[in-house]
Amino acid sequence: MSQIADAITYLTRSLKLARSPELRRYVIIPLIFNILVFGGLYWLSGSWIAGWITAATADWVLTGFWSFLNGALHFLIDAAVVLVWILLLGLFASVFSIGVQLIAAPFMGFLAEKVDIQITGHPMNDESIPAMILRTFKRELRKTWYWLWRAVLILFVVLVIYFIPVVNVLASAIWFLWSGWLLGMQYIDFGADNRQVPFEVMLERLKEKRWLVLTFGAIVMALTMIPLVNLFIMPVAVIAGTLIWVEQLAPSTPSPGSQQTINAVGAPLQSTQLAQQENRPQGNRVEP
Questions:
Q1: 221 — pLDDT class (breaks 50, 70, 90)
Q2: In which domain, by residue range, is 59 found?
Q3: Among 6, 184, 235, 287, which is most exposed with the fewest C-beta within 10 angstroms?
């Protein structure tokens, strides 16, 4: 229950941080990007389908005894066009946020970086902007591969369960939990990636706070399915995910088999820092 409450608290905090002067511009840039991409694709798709319906029904005119129904026929055609726009809005609301993740990853990386520095006070490793964009793009491809084949397997299991009486009530729950885990991982990983924590290490840390990740992802998923709200929730979710990583999940010890020491915020310690730790007085020690 404490992890569920923490997820709600982090989202509330992220709403306040998103409006802060330090982060506002980093929230507005991806927001404008989302609106332009979403609006452009929505308008082009809707205009093309509506134009096709209008052209296909241009010659639909009743004559003779049935001519009095022409008004109702034109009304139905106009209603079909309006229905297309509404259905497209719902479709884009559910699919758009998944597709735009890959394109908007660098913008989200910048936002997560500023949140991390503001909370921890620790600077990031020196990295050029092209290198950062390339790294985040590769990370998104890695995450896409992680969830894509697993989603196919889980979908197969859900479909099998769906046709089994009584047990089929679990189908929706399984898919909901998987989707919540996926979105939680997606947004929390921005903070881990900025500190260049390996993807496998990040996953192991997430498993230690399963309910926190699931609750956070489930809430974000519910908000993402609301048209127009899905445009605004993405930057807020990045802020919340970064807070969760920094304050709850960042490793403080090396992962098994790792040759790097990782500090409290997940950043590899430099060689000078390691040397300082090795030479630091440890108190009175009795040598064997």
A1: confident
A2: 2-250
A3: 287
